[in-house]
Amino acid sequence: MFDKDSSIVTRTSSFDLPVQKKRDGSYKLQSDAPVYTCMTSDFFVEEADEYRKTAWEYIRIRSDLHFVIITKRIDRFTVSLPDDWGDGYENVTICSTCENQETADHRLPIMISLPLRHRHIIHEPMLGPVDIRRYLATGLFEHVTCGGESGDGARVCDYDWILDTRKQCLQYGVPFYFKQTGACFRKDGRIYHIERKYQLSQARKAGINTE
Length: 211
What we know:
Elements: E1 35-37, H1 49-61, E2 67-71, E3 92-97, H2 101-113, E4 119-123, H3 133-136, E5 141-147, E6 157-158, H4 159-172, E7 176-180, E8 184-187, E9 190-193, H5 196-205
Parallel strand pairs: 1-2, 2-3, 3-4, 4-5, 5-7, 6-8
Antiparallel strand pairs: 8-9
């Protein structure tokens, strides 16, 4: 999509952006919004092991920013973990993707066992109904996001799956967010093919977010 070879994992030109400074000594990156980390890859990808200690150091230094890390490799969380991690950095939220029941039952128990201050669940792309009640019941998860799959060959996302997850979140008082419909969205038994530019706005129009 961006004329890049996605099989090559390397540092980008903005890798050290969190600690870059202006001439007056202040940080270039100033934000009250969350800093989403490694969004076009995975922070815990194997090929990035050599970079991760440095990345954690930047995150530790910038304790004034809140970093959000989304991963499907939660089982690799402890690789290159900083020595002073302890119970977790207060300025870090770890989000595990769980696209179906199988991945939820594999990844969420791992998340529960890890020393984390902030845990989120992301059903994106959501490829089936997912029962996460026993995980929400622990009180350890702060937020759940659902969304369909985009791009060519997108698999179907059913609105009933979204509503069921919302119901589970309401049961346990966990904020819920419906992010996007995805490109292939089923509602009331009918399939809708939705252009990318409308997927976020159509989800918002559903009016089901509780956060």
